[in-house]
Design brief:
A 7-stranded mixed sheet has the order 2-1-5-4-3-6-7. Helix 1 packs parallel to helix 7. It has 11 helices and 7 strands. The chain has 312 residues and is of the alpha/beta class.
């Protein structure tokens, strides 16, 4: 049945197109994810965040417009990409690491689970089917023009199921619908060993709390901006939280007064922070004012918004 293989190819093309477009829209999330995922150093380069969505979009077009061995070649590249994604997410889940893959940019929460593994396994199967179709001389356009009414009905049913799954699985972001929630009772440790909760930290002054980690390029960029942000967004304070105080030497340009440590990661967990750099804006009323925000671009956008409000 032609619609059996063509539905797999269309599904793969649709997912790649969605992934590519969403990554184009939120490159900051992609760059942040690349820094925390266990990837080779070369893959963590900033240019990868630009090349990856372009590659996904190009593969989607290739799957739709080519046929025969050209389709087989495109499908082979898609197979290599989906196998790489599958190996990565499987490793993350087996390690029990709660990170976000930014697979669909800002459209999803993106936390890697066994559902992510299953989704990527299905995409591998779809790439294999597209590869087989190409070696047999098939193509999407030619097959669509020659399908029977029954084939079209079957394909429509598959398309409906796929759209329904996407609608259920993706978190749609609605501008202006941020719901403020209570600041969690997580504890931070000052450099002198004293403790303070997040609520106590923002008791008298709103605070922008930044979560940074060692060996993270975007974190270093954020850290270098902290000394300039502090006076620009006053009276909102800027605080930096590091997992390990032993990495303070990586951030010599941050004022020591702004540093806290949290070796148990209680604050990130309570705020649902799963990648660095991230930030949360704590209000003096005991509620979160914004966040968690992931990635350099999201954080700088929030700083710009605070600066605009405080200096209006």
């Amino acid at each position: 049945m032609p619609s059996a293989w063509i539905s797999s190819t269309l599904l793969l093309a649709g997912v790649l197109a969605l992934g590519g477009v969403s990554k184009f829209r939120s490159p900051g999330d992609v760059r942040a994810a690349l820094q925390v995922l266990p990837l080779p150093r070369v893959v963590r380069r900033p240019w990868v965040a630009t090349v990856l969505p372009a590659l996904e979009a190009a593969l989607a077009l290739g799957l739709l417009l080519t046929s025969g061995w050209a389709l087989a070649l495109v499908a082979a590249v898609a197979l290599a990409l989906t196998l790489s994604f599958l190996a990565l997410v499987t490793t993350l889940v087996q390690r029990g690491e709660a990170v976000r893959c930014a697979c669909f940019g800002s459209l999803t929460g993106g936390e890697v689970t066994w559902v992510t593994v299953l989704r990527n396994a299905l995409l591998v199967v779809a790439a294999l089917v597209a590869l087989l179709a190409g070696t047999r001389g098939h193509g999407v356009v030619g097959t669509l023009t020659s399908m029977s009414t029954a084939d079209w009905a079957w394909l429509a049913a598959v398309a409906f199921a796929a759209v329904l799954a996407v609608a259920v699985g993706l978190r749609q972001e609605v501008v202006g619908s941020y719901e403020r929630t209570p600041i969690p009772d997580a504890t931070l440790v000052r450099l002198d060993g004293s403790e303070v909760t997040l609520k106590e930290l923002a008791k008298d002054q709103a605070q922008l709390v930044l979560f940074l980690s060692p060996g993270c390029g975007p974190c270093m960029e954020v850290a270098q901006l902290v000394p300039t942000w502090s006076p620009q967004i006053w009276p909102v304070g800027v605080q930096v939280v590091l997992h390990d105080p032993g990495v303070l030497t990586e951030y010599p340009f941050i004022e020591p007064v702004a540093l806290f440590t949290d070796d148990e990661d209680s604050a990130p967990r309570s705020l649902d922070v799963t990648m660095t750099p991230s930030a949360a804006l704590l209000g003096t009323d005991g509620l979160l004012a914004a966040g968690p925000l992931a990635g350099l671009e999201a954080i700088t956008a929030q700083v710009d918004a605070i600066r605009t409000r405080t200096h209006a």
